[in-house]
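note to self — DONT lose this again. spent like an hour looking for the file last time. sequence + predicted structure for the chain T wanted, 358 res
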Amino acid sequence: MSIKQKLETLATERNAPCVTISFNTHRTRPDNEKDKIVLKNLVKEAETRVIEKFGKRPVQALLDKLSSVTEQIDVSYNLDSLHLFLSNDTLEIVRSIWPTNENIVHVSDAFVIRPLIKSYSRTEEYYILLLSQGGVHLYHAMNDSIVKEIINTDFPFTENPIMLTDPVQASDAKRVDNKAREYFNNVDKALVKLYRDSTIKTVVVTTENNYSLLQQVADFPSVYLGNITLDFNNSAPHQLVDQGWKFIQSLQQERQKEAIAEMKNAVSDGIVVTDLQEIYQAALDGRGELLIVNQHFSQPVVLENRTLKVVESGEGKDVIDDVASTISWEVVSKKGRVVYTEQEHLSDLGNIALKTRY
């Protein structure tokens, strides 16, 4: 599932209890070895609090998840924070490229999804498909980071049948082409299956000829964002995500230009709101069609029903450290669009602007 899908699911769950564990992590050794200790301590705290409040028998399924969850986490894939959501019915583990304010254990009848809102609103998820003579590998990426390699019944493809070993068959151009089409069609079907579950699109890394052939046999060519020409000397995962993120950023810049032009055209129609309070209320009401936010804008607030109070520090009781992320989720969850940008063309509208539906 994508972050958005996880958010939608977790936001609606009500259970007794729902356990949320959030803590900052490290990307590299030896620091990420310390994350194991932090996780173990937080899980122990969660177990103690759950047993004290609910006993053991009614929440045995949850306690079983808590006792085994540390074994399911490979710290070598840690990013900047880790978020666990557990109940009798649910277990979700989410890595984020955004740090959290503090390490917390939260036990109530609902999950604390605020960290995921920021991760969703300021993160681009995509797959990187490495298609080479050595086979096929698929990576799940967020911005400039690899989250994990996709390993399931379809991926990776460890053998490439295009490489015919029989010299007679290999010299038959039509046979080679048919074999390649069959192979790429199988890759496409496996990828489309993932797309239907996650709605995450893919950047392909391969030769121009291979990408052209993949597009010809693809059931849904639109799931592919484009191709990066394969450099066999730079095909390690960290090198692939560097190339993939640059490609994604170029697409983002085009989307940002179009969104800013749309916003400025809407000013004359009187349907653009730039006051933070008015933006928040319009988003709550489902009136937000397009929200544009300066990538560096972050405003801590305290929310009281439909109003917000701006505060200086992101720390403290009931303080939301980034109201822009909260507003972003309100817009997206009500079928609006959100664009974060560093482009200065937004500057005359301020750090945040909302085009309303009416």
